[in-house]
Amino acid sequence: MLSEPTPRSLRRTLGYWLRLAAAGALLGIVLLYILAGSSFGGPQSGLAASLSTATPTPTQAAGEPTPLPTQTAQPTVPPAPLVVGAGRSLDGLRVLSLNEYGYARLFSHQLTGQAFTRLTYGQWDDVSPAFSQHGGLVAFASNRSGHWDLYVLELATGLTSQLTSDNAYEGSPSWSDNGWLAYTHDNGGNLEIAIRPLDGSVDPLYVSLSPARDHSPAWRPGAQQLAFVSDREGTPAIWLLYLEQEGAARFAQLAPERGAQAAPAWSPDGRWLAWAEQDAAGMWAIYVSDLLNAPRYVGSGQQPQWSPAGDVILATVSTETEHYLTAYTLDGELALAPQTLPGGMRGAAWAAGEWPEPLAGLLQAAAAAQPEHAWAQPAGSPQPVPLNGTYAPNPSLSSAAAAPFEALRQRTAQLLGWDALSSLENALVPLSTPLPPGQYESWLLTGRAFAVRSGLLNAGWLAAVREEIGGQTYWRIYLRTANPNGGLGQPLTQTPWDFAARYTGVESSYQAGGKLADEVPAGYWIDFTALAAEYGFERLPAQANWRSFFPATLFNQFVLRDGLSWQEAMLQLYSAEEVNAPRP
Q1: For 82, which DSSP code?
Q2: Architecture of the domain whose range is 24-59+93-362
Q3: Distance between CA 323 and CA 348 in Å, rounded?
Q4: What does the mean pLDDT of the chain come to?
Q5: What backbone phi and psi angles, to 5 degrees, belong to 3?
Q6: pTM of the model
Q7: N or C: which end of the chain has fewer CB within 10 A?
Q8: What integer pLDDT is reported at residue 11 of this predicted model?
């Protein structure tokens, strides 16, 4: 077992290289790497077969398998990724949670150009996978029961067992060496770190016990220690929890508050801790530390995961419209050129081993499912069509956007328990309608955009988190669910922006266009920005004068570009003469 070093304050880093490297012709993409300063098969009998004899098995029976489609799978094999840094360990088992047509599902993935193979399938979300010590089990969080609980997938059989059953949120599982699980639990509106044995023989133990939001634990291999995220000092930061200590000695902050920190992950030998950290420009990067020396910048990205050999760190890099998977060495060298992900990633796990052929029958059934868009593009040229059952000044959209909007509305209502898109602030705006200054080329004119009602913000049903990306201000929109104590949403862990603070008479808040809210709002929320992106609707950056002119925030507008410029989108509905004619 490793000794328990006393964490030191980590000095401020002078910046970092944000590089979006060319993935080359083999990937078919070019990603700029910007400089920013410096499935098992076999006859094993049940869940216990995958555990050591000292680890008890779950008492819950495996759930009834959901009937799945039996079509022959026809996966699209991506081009082989460009592997950089010969000899680095890129093999092993990888499970990723990826968004697919509005739902998050578990996929296996090899970094050798093989297809993504679906492991779970259903009308629910499966996120935050975590491998057990020997790689035979995958713990994950799912809302398939109507609220977020923990589940375990046995790769040898494809059977899934439910570990927890609680209306309150439970997620972000992490395994100890002896089969215990640490996870995030909503304890009466307060996020805490809980631990429990796999078999449920001991009631969950709350080990963080703070009025702050404590979440995303990572159990240190070979030690009774956890790394987790907490806002107990303000900004979300990485903290260390020593389970064998009591009182104030039990907790230590990893680094001073420089920017938001997230997603701690230990190396397999427990020596190194990796995490994601945000700089003043809003860019995310991966850092590592041995808890004794200054942190080491590794590369751009989020959601770090270690290779089984501990010499490579997997990470995601995202733009406004694309998501990529890449990998770095501990020295910050590129080990895997960025390869395109088919959807946004909501957690990953990496363990030693290989995926044998064939996969277990239940896993094959999930892989063979062929989900499709819930809508079809209408034939003919786009034209304005009414939105049935939707209130707006002009409840219409272009026929190119109407069907995906209706699908988004249905999925949003399912998650929220109320219909947030039944009433819009704006949809298709006629050419004769005056628009705010600076919005002469508003996407609302194209019929491809809509605006969520801004009144939801003041009513407490909408929260906007400020994000700075590439020198521009964006807003990530969260909508609150109808069920304040559970359901399909998740607790909010980011501090939203308080637009109303500009009217409080405080000069600094007025000049800044508001300020961070005093606290993170309670309740359960969905990330509407991420969900809308699954249906093709992008958010828009704020205009340069947003701090002094509230309509310029554009925080509530979403657009279906489909690769079109504003002019091209306008010409789908209007003639060139109409587009270029003077307008109010």
Answers
A1: -
A2: 6 Propeller (2.120)
A3: 14
A4: 84
A5: -70, 165
A6: 0.84
A7: C
A8: 33
